[in-house]
Design goal:
By secondary structure, the chain is an alpha/beta fold. It contains ten helices and 20 strands.
Length: 357
């Protein structure tokens, strides 16, 4: 137990593999032997731009935050986990004592520690320590890859909860990337009666259709806003009562307001430019609620139960597999969408080592 190969981002376009010391867990932590780590759009963004908004890479940072692993050591105060347990890792945790944490909205904590968000290290490494209460034991039939995918799935769960999706909801989802697709399968499981999803790429919409979208719409670049709203309303036979923007482009942020039924709800998940031009008077005059989403909180248990019950299939999102030694190739594949890449999975241990036999 001396190999701790780790993927470290030193700066823009400078991702390296190196050996690091194996960490020692604190009393309330576990040491995890990492298994599967998915590549997120934010990981790619740090590689290409070195920052996301106010989060700026100023020193080398271990990359990766969509992950699962095996408990290798337990801290003295840890009671609910033991060596050998397979767990999904919720990568962000708050201070536990501020008003936000105590009210259960720890994703808004000013002291939030989140994997692979500067200045905090992520978990694309062979060994990693994490608070035990943010590790969720996987049932025997759930794979390690599914465990890693609970992270993006939790964003979809949080978005649908913020939109108050329920029985009979008609939901428009803008963007069919990984977050759009997990939002789609979550909305379906929560009882939405009709879901329309849009994207620029037909290939992504084909996957959305496979995952249960009722209708899909390719939005042509440069298409007029009025025309796109008309097309969306035609597909619904009216206006949707919930719109979830999983893109973050100014065009989709505007559409999320313009296409939503009066009195409905527009939820913004995707993050684009820090300032955008929105048809605010339109939203106010029609009482369209605009809600933000920042990651998730208290959503991992629901995401895990959705996967464990078989109600949703996240495995379809995984298009590519690499081992940790191939990390640079994995990032290149994810970044450029090579071979129709949706979710690229990096295996820190040989694939299927810890999966149900």
């Amino acid at each position: 137990m001396n190999d701790n190969l780790t993927a470290v981002l030193y700066g823009i376009e400078d991702l390296r593999l190196e050996q690091r010391p194996i960490p020692v867990p604190k009393d309330d932590e576990v040491l995890l032997q990492m298994d599967s780590v998915g590549i997120c759009g934010s990981d790619v963004h740090y590689l290409v731009n070195g920052r996301i908004g106010d989060f700026v890479l100023r020193k080398p940072m271990v990359i990766g935050h969509e992950a699962s692993g095996i408990v290798a050591k337990v801290g003295s105060k840890v009671k609910h986990l033991q060596i050998g347990d397979r767990v999904a890792i919720e990568p962000g945790y708050g201070c536990r004592v501020c008003d936000f944490c105590k009210a259960g909205r720890y994703n808004l904590c000013d002291e939030m520690i989140f994997c692979a968000t500067p200045p905090f290290d992520g978990n694309l490494t062979r060994y990693f320590t994490h608070p035990a209460d943010f590790c969720f034991k996987l049932p025997a039939h759930v794979t390690m890859e599914e465990g890693a995918l609970l992270e993006p799935l939790s964003v979809g769960v949080h978005a649908c909860r913020r939109a108050q999706v329920g029985l009979g909801s008609e939901v428009l989802i803008l963007g069919a990337g990984p977050i759009g697709l997990v939002t789609l399968i979550t909305a379906k499981s929560m009882g939405a009666s009709k879901i329309v999803i849009t994207d620029l790429l037909q290939s992504r919409l084909d996957v959305a259709k496979e995952l249960g979208a009722d209708e899909t719409l390719v939005v042509e670049r440069g298409a007029s806003e009025t025309e796109v709203v008309k097309q969306i309303h035609a597909l619904f036979g009216g206006a949707p009562d919930k719109t979830i923007d999983c893109s973050g482009a100014e065009a989709t942020s505007r559409l999320s307001i313009l296409a939503t039924r009066s009195g409905g709800c527009a939820v913004m998940v995707g993050m684009g430019a820090p300032e955008v031009k929105l048809p605010l008077v339109n939203a106010l005059a029609r009482e369209v609620d605009i809600r933000g989403v920042f990651r998730y909180c208290n959503d991992y248990p629901a995401a895990l139960s959705l996967v464990a019950s078989g109600k949703i299939n996240v495995k379809r999102l995984i298009t590519h597999h690499f081992n940790i030694e191939e990390t640079l190739d994995a990032f290149n594949t994810s970044r450029h969408g090579l071979g129709g890449a949706i979710k690229v999975m990096i295996h820190v241990q040989p694939k299927d080592t810890n999966n149900p036999k």
